[in-house]
Specification:
This protein is of the alpha+beta class. 33% of the residues lie in helices and 20% in strands. The chain binds flavin-adenine dinucleotide and FE2/S2 (inorganic) cluster (2 copies). Keywords: FAD, Flavoprotein, Iron, Metal-binding, Oxidoreductase.
Length: 496
Amino acid sequence: MIDFYLNGRRQHCSDVTADTSLLELLRTRLGQTGTKEGCASGDCGACTVAIGEPDADGELVYHNANACITPAHQVDGCHLVTVEGLARGERLHPAQAAMVDCHGSQCGFCTPGIVMSLFTLYENQRRRPAPLTQDRLEEALGGNLCRCTGYRPIRDAALKMVDYPQADPEWAEDTRLAGNVAWLRRPRNGEPAAEGHYVAPQDLAALRALKAKRPEARLVAGGTDLWLETTQQLKALDDIIDVRQVAELNAIEETAEGWWIGAAVTLARLTPLLAEPYPAFAHLMHRFASSQIRNRATLGGNIANASPIGDTPPVLLALDARLRLDGPRGTRELPLADFFLDYKRTALAGDEFIAAIFLPRPAEGTNLKVWKLSKRREDDISAVLGAFAWRLEDGVMRDVHLAFGGMAAIPRRAPAAEAALEGRTPDADAFAEARAALAGELTPMSDVRGSADYRRLAAGNLLERLRLMITAGHGRADDADNNNPATKVTLDAYAH
Ligand SMILES: Cc1cc2nc3c(=O)[nH]c(=O)nc-3n(C[C@H](O)[C@H](O)[C@H](O)COP(=O)(O)OP(=O)(O)OC[C@H]3O[C@@H](n4cnc5c(N)ncnc54)[C@H](O)[C@@H]3O)c2cc1C
Ligand code: FES
Ligand code: FES
């Protein structure tokens, strides 16, 4: 049984198969066809909805999500808002009225999704007013593609909607809604939520017990990788354990040495934590997919998925991160570097799961630079990602960690290139040796994102970019901006 509120009305949906997507539930079971299917793979945003969950103060906070790759069972205990839930009779919500007034729609296929991303921005703006900068607009709309209107009118609507007189949906006047939603989420004494072949344990003990009983069941966290198996490969996912509600997997524990980050912590929640110790890592998070994806996707899912082009593993490798694996037979820790064995093969045993990721605090003087190369800036997966950590001690490089994504069957470090730089001044000779070593030790593949030759060249160029940055005096730990205009000039010159 999925028990939730849809546009302010309680819904009970029973007999929903484990692999039903939220989009399918809305369109085929609930007759809510305003939410569209474009790509069914999280790329276009036509299916965007807003999911409301109570915060610590009991207030409903909304985030946008792709209904096509959200498991239907994950709206259990939530308030789901779709495009049908915004207007009040003839009176449009400001997000809709501004789209009409700014001519933000032509064929209209993308429009419901864009309106829902604007609605989420509007709600967040109301809770925490802040200037609507270009960056914020791109962040809010980066996961919504439009083929015919063009983005300027849509951007104009985003800027304009906040000045419209408030016009809340009918459900917003129900003062009991947040409390009612919170009640649906009450602790269930270890009883897993949902039912049958889709279970959502709420604590570690229940997850371990389920893993012991059903080692073959697939784990799902955000579903932003796993769900593509059903929508793109048409595979049945008929036995699922959802880790999203496991309290321990949602904890972030700060210690003197660093942070234990629960595997089910979403990327949206992780990003502010990274801003202070690792600004370059936080910056990367804004280039990770779209807000719809980051709101659902988890750090544990990004690692367990073991893609050679996953964005966080190279950064975590450069920072010497560790994992805590858990399961019915106990807990163990291992360096992330020992986790990836071969293409999509990891050290995880059948009955184990990732419980937490340890992110060490930066040692005094540590620098981190991260560069993601992809064809599009927003909502695209890396062709190559380079993550570089080092210290400068009396002018020589120490503790050099060079890690790459897209350069082998697994995300990995480049020990020979590191050795070429360790203890050396960051000069052209040392980096030329490092680039030569790199070419010999990494074996990228050719695919739609880039040929092996392109990747080899690009990875070598990233090392040269690093040298230019270091010698130009950038790359300090506090240098958050990978797009520093001064450095950009040098790099643009280098690119020609
Ligand atoms: C449109 C789109 C854009 C994307 N862009 C990017 C991008 O820019 N960069 C990038 O790196 N990725 C990207 N991805 C991939 C995906 O969003 C990430 O890999 C994400 O972090 C996966 O997390 P999740 O919680 O959704 O994982 P899920 O899909 O829920 O799970 C992924 C895998 O991990 C397993 N798993 C999940 N949690 C655990 C756990 N605790 N222990 C053990 N196994 C577990 C699952 O069984 C599954 O095999 C994109 C995906 C889409 C659809
Ligand atoms: S249908 Fe394209 S993102 Fe969902
Ligand atoms: S209005 Fe046609 S795709 Fe956007």
